[in-house]
Amino acid sequence: MDAVFARLQTVKSLPPTDDPDVHRRALTDILRRHAGYSGAYFMVSGPTAMRALVTLWATEEDARAASERTRAAAGETAPPVTIDEDTVYEVVDDEPGASADAAPAVAGLATFDGPFSDAARATIDRVHRRDIIPAARAVPGTVRLMVLWDRLSRSMRALLLATERPVLDAARVAIDATDPGAGEDPALVSPPDRMDTWEVAGADVPVTGASARP
């Protein structure tokens, strides 16, 4: 797991004539030819049909250039989609879960809007590494946990990939049981502003991390 940057893109839906599986396989084939590519997770939100793509990259330059490179490679075959969100993050923590070799089926995405001061960022990093990450990754069925930092908006996201929805619930219970933030300045410790659950429609990752499921 050597990705240093992640790019999160969301679209409200694909064109109705598109077969999502065909589109995903074609996009995966293109992504694998990009410089710095380190993997991808294709996600969908059941209630809204919104789709999300998390791609992993060796450098920030590769992450930011990915869409232009993909359009150049796909040409006229690229489907007309409207991007709802497009953010490049630094991957500040990337840890395997208790079931790291399993195929992820769901993902929990915690959003911390910020903006965080340097002191708040240091505190949250400390709480994540001391309490939250060890508790979450010890839960059976967790596959991978990544903490993402957006230096432009000074916001954070945490992505927990797991084998099924009950695992996400169990991870939240395990995290709450640690009393995260105990002993820290309450003004510097922030709970997530939003928690979203996604289905993982496919994954393209090294077999040493979590099994690929393109």
UniProtKB/TrEMBL annotation:
This is ABM domain-containing protein. It comes from the Bacteria.
